[in-house]
Design goal:
Number of helices: 8
Radius of gyration: 17 Å
Order of helices and strands: HHHHHHHH
Distance between the termini: 52 Å
Number of strands: 0
Strand content: under 5%
Structural class: mainly alpha
Length: 204
């Protein structure tokens, strides 16, 4: 789906993002002149290619950023633009990262619907999986397939259901923007923690 033609206006890039990048817009785009979503800008910064699935960003974080970009209003989307630089290189390698991120989104949705048993169950399931995999080794083919199946199955469903709840909230722009900023910070912390763990292990 392409952005609406009326989004082709000239604006100055927000602080922290180089000038000359496309105008913030919703959905995917065929050409930078039509604008770009947040992940497309991250891809341009990372590789110069216009794609909303940059290889340097974890797929779960990509999915979150796409929904936030497409759901918030123009002012909120513009304010999120500086996150593109961090998103361009945000792919924690640990197996526990995806369920940790999905659990964070589910917990945010529970603040909107605290009585939801489904959200409570999804949150517990994600936390359990994240804890079990937090210190798990990279694993072989079987582990990678298991992680992929979780992400493409229950993981993605939990994420999408939670984001629907958040997008319907009266203050959705604020909640979604805060959530994405938290997720980007979480990705940096997770990657840093894994790197520190590997460093300690090598020194023993």
């Amino acid at each position: 789906m392409t952005a609406l033609p009326d989004r082709r206006v000239s604006v100055k890039s927000p602080a922290g993002v180089p000038d000359g990048l496309p105008v913030p817009g919703r959905f995917a785009h065929l050409h930078p002149e039509d604008g770009a979503c947040l992940m497309e800008v991250a891809a341009l910064l990372a590789s110069g290619r216009l794609t909303d699935s940059p290889p340097g960003t974890h797929p779960a974080l990509v999915a979150l950023a796409r929904v936030v970009n497409d759901s918030v209003g123009d002012d909120a989307r513009h304010a999120l633009w500086p996150l593109a630089a961090d998103l361009a290189d945000a792919r924690p390698a640990g197996r526990g990262y995806a369920p940790l991120l999905v659990g964070t989104v589910v917990d945010a949705a529970r603040l909107v619907r605290p009585a939801s048993r489904r959200l409570a169950w999804h949150g517990r399931a994600c936390r359990r999986r994240a804890e079990n995999l937090a210190h798990a080794p990279a694993g072989g083919v079987a582990d990678r397939i298991a992680d992929l199946l979780w992400w493409r199955g229950p993981g993605r469903r939990h994420l999408e259901q939670a984001l629907r709840v958040l997008s319907a909230a009266p203050d959705a722009d604020q909640r979604l923007s805060r959530l994405l900023r938290q997720a980007v910070a979480q990705a940096r912390e997770y990657a840093g923690g894994r790197a520190a763990s590997r460093e300690v292990g090598c020194n023993r």
